[in-house]
Amino acid sequence: MSEAHSDPAGQWDGMDYRTIARMIDTFLPRVQKPARYTGGEFNSNPKDWEARGPQGRHRIRLGIAFPDIYDIGMSNLGMQVLYEVVNRDDRFLAERVFAPWFDMEAELRRSRVPLFGLETRHALGQFDVLGFSLAYELDYTNVLNMLNLAHIPVRARDRGPEHPIVIAGGSNATNPEPMSDFIDAFLIGEGEESLTAFLALYDELRESSPRPDRTVLLREAAHRIPGCYVPTLYEAHYDDRGVFTALEPLPGAPELPVKKSFVDLVDYPLPTRPVVPYMETIHDRAAIEIMRGCGRGCRFCQADLIYRPRRVRPRAQIIEMADQLLKSTGYNELSLLSLSSADIKHIDLVVQDAIDLFDDNTLTIAMPSTRVDAFNVHLAELIERGKRSGITFAPEAGTERMREVIHKGVSEADTLAAAEMAYSRGWQTIKLYFMIGLPTETDQDVEGIGHLAQKVLDVGRRHHGRRARVTVGVSTMVPKAHTPFQWAAQATRPQIERRISVLRNVTRDRGMRVSWHDPESTIVEGVMSRGDRRVGTAIYGAWRRGARFDAWNQHLRFEAWQAGMGDAGLDIETYGTDDRDIHARLPWDHVDVGVARWHLVAQWNRARGVEAEPRQRQSFVLLHGEDVTTAPTLATVGASALATQS
Ligand code: SF4
After folding, report:
1. Where does the pLDDT of residue 643 fall: very low under 50, low under 70, confident under 90, or very high at 90 and above?
2. Which domains, and CATH codes, for the chain?
């Protein structure tokens, strides 16, 4: 099914939007779910392509690109927010584009129709800027494939004045190096302000020419826009063993580090009019981000660290947004999104207020929450109102020792008390989430997962007999940049397989269903999450050999990845499988997410039972020539700036 690709240094070859529209209409009867490609949905905003902005110039045209299919991308709240932020500004125009599924890709390639924006069907090559959302490492080959389908050179160095500027943001931009061969500029941090600042800069530089010089634009952006990182302005160095040693600014480049941008959530009560798909998507409902950040400090959790400070949306604003959203979309289901909803003060009152918006009690609320305690059960009761569809707890590890290592702050007694409450209130099935492949893990820790799950099931049987169920979801930890576990070894394939087999041996009860992540996708994700620039060669090599939709287990082509890593002179099975030296430079050290390195070192040492020596702490005082122990971090600055919100 997957074919090898070539990467012609192509360009948009003049096919106008009318021809593209006509050709696409001939494909649609032959592809699955044609509504993925039609656009025209309720609340979509097809702005006039030719209309002029306030300065009499055409609007800056942005393609917001999501590197997975429509069904997934349309459920991405960040994309809906940015679409509205950009389109509200009369200087700009934003359209959406998603990765075409295999059948549509084949049609596009066969007919040489370029990938296009959903709103007006203009070729992506006609846009000024293409912005990719990077939230998952296994989507990276889709970025290359989408560029190729748009007839835009995949590598940044092959693009010329006739091509759009390709930018990227999202959580994975906090380690931009693996994708730095393909992206002209990264916007690191939260995009609500930096994206419009980038487009405004583009507009400003057009005063002298219709398409600004890319080199000038990128250099100006790196200097002037918070969180903007332009990889070509820096050179990576490695030692004789191929270990990354430094990122050196080239002449004219801004000094490092690049500090992430972040916003005050209360200033962005968006989206108000999200696009409503005509087809079913994975989350077919209105959504509001009720909190950004978490602050609980689980040591494996990247989201906790990169989205600091924790910002809670005020209750009145949430309800106002909910009212507006439900009226503008016709949905009767509302998702209240955050990293840890149960930690929000008075969240039960927020939920009740939302339910009360509909007099007839027909509003369905969805609120992902995995906290292991009675309050989570109380929340689930409030949300489900009589139904008992499912309740989830995430103890994350099987033994008290392991939970201390990861700083989860949950005991076995907490888990059993929460299970007792859930089963006694009518739930028959409890979902439990765990991780394997954690630092210092032993077979006993893995067996502990099975033992804890069994104890939970025993509680269920006291209430429901044979109808009680426990489902156990197990993922393998992938150490992430900017977390205390960024120095941890990635579990090897034999280790992962051994731990899965240990787990299977202790989860044989018929009331238990166990599932785990595919080890090969974990290995690929692990390589890219902490990769340096050389990994870009592997991504390119894997894509050339047909890899795409790697996030879909059935489409992951591990052999293409193995060969791609070989192109880079790296071994996929061993890359990142040793603990990293805490004194060494890391490929993402030039990105400052607002958390001091000594804090991460202290947490990593505590996880391993190592007391931090004063001398060890000293060695991290000077990072990029800056005293990170005393410099105000984004977390502290933000916390005081936002203190009035809650
Ligand atoms: S509670 Fe969840 S979101 Fe918060 S730090 Fe822990 S794992 Fe991350």
Report:
1. very low
2. 17-259 (3.40.50.2300), 528-578 (no CATH), 591-641 (no CATH)
Among 299, 302, 306, 340, say which to mutate for ligand 1: greatest number of ligand atoms within 8 Å of CB: 340
Spatial distance between the Cα atoms of 495 and 437, rounded to a whole number of angstroms: 8
Residue 296 Cα: closest atom of ligand 1: 5
Whether 615 and 282 have beta carbons less than 8 Å apart is answered as no
Angstrom distance (rounded) from CA 489 to CA 577? 5
| Nearest alpha carbon to residue 472 among 441, 517, 440, 439 | 517
Question: Does pTM surpass 0.90?
Answer: yes
**pLDDT band per the 50, 70, 90 thresholds, residue 636:** very low
Q: Whose CA is nearest to atom 1 of ligand 1?
A: 296
Distance from Cα 522 to the centre of ligand 1, integer Å: 20
Per-residue exposure over 636-646, b if at least 16 CB sit within 10 Å of its own CB, e if not = eebbeebeeee
Nearest to 430 by CA among 372, 384, 347: 372
* Alpha-carbon span 128 to 168, nearest angstrom: 14
**What confidence tier does 7 reach under pLDDT thresholds 50, 70, 90?**
low
Number of residues that this document lists for the chain: 646
Please tell me the distance between residue 340's alpha carbon and the centre of ligand 1 in angstroms.
7
Among the atoms of ligand 1, which is closest to the Cα of residue 408? 6
Backbone angles phi, psi at 461, to 5 degrees: -70, -30
Q: Residue 96 — left, alpha, or beta (φ > 0 → left; ψ -120 to 50 → alpha)?
A: beta
The residue ranges of DSSP E strands in 241-294, in sequence order, are 244-249, 258-259, 286-289, 291-292
Is 260 in contact with 237 (CB distance < 8 Å)? Answer: no
Which atom of ligand 1 is nearest the CA belonging to 297?
A: 5
Which residue minimizes the CA distance to atom 3 of ligand 1? Answer: 339
Q: Answer whether residue 10 shows pLDDT above 70.
A: no
Say if CB 564 and CB 537 are below 8 A apart. yes
**Which pLDDT score is estimated for 12?**
54
Distance 422 CA to ligand 1 centre (A): 22
State mean pLDDT over 221-231: 98
Nearby residues of 640 by Cβ (< 8 Å), 6 or more positions away: none
Q: Which of 70, 66, 93 is nearest to 79 (CA)?
A: 66
Pocket of ligand 1 (CB under 6 A): 294, 296-298, 301, 303-304, 339-340
Q: How far is the CA of 407 from the centre of ligand 1 (A)?
A: 10
Alpha helices in 298-360 (DSSP H): 302-306, 315-329, 347-355
Give, as one character, the DSSP assignment of residue 189: B
- Residue 354's alpha-carbon distances to 108, 142, 287, 318, in angstroms, are 44, 38, 12, 8
How far away, in angstroms, is 510 Cα from ligand 1 center? 31
- In angstroms, the CA 460 to CA 415 distance is 12
Structure tokens at 631: 């410099």
The minimum-distance atom of ligand 1 relative to the CA of 294 is: 4
Q: How far apart, in whole angstroms, are the C-alpha atoms of residue 173 and residue 179?
A: 9
User: H helices within 369-492, ranges in order?
Assistant: 374-384, 400-406, 412-424, 443-464
Distance, in Å, from the CA atom of 325 to the CA atom of 331, rounded to the nearest integer, reads 8
Give the distance from CA 327 to its chain's centroid: 29
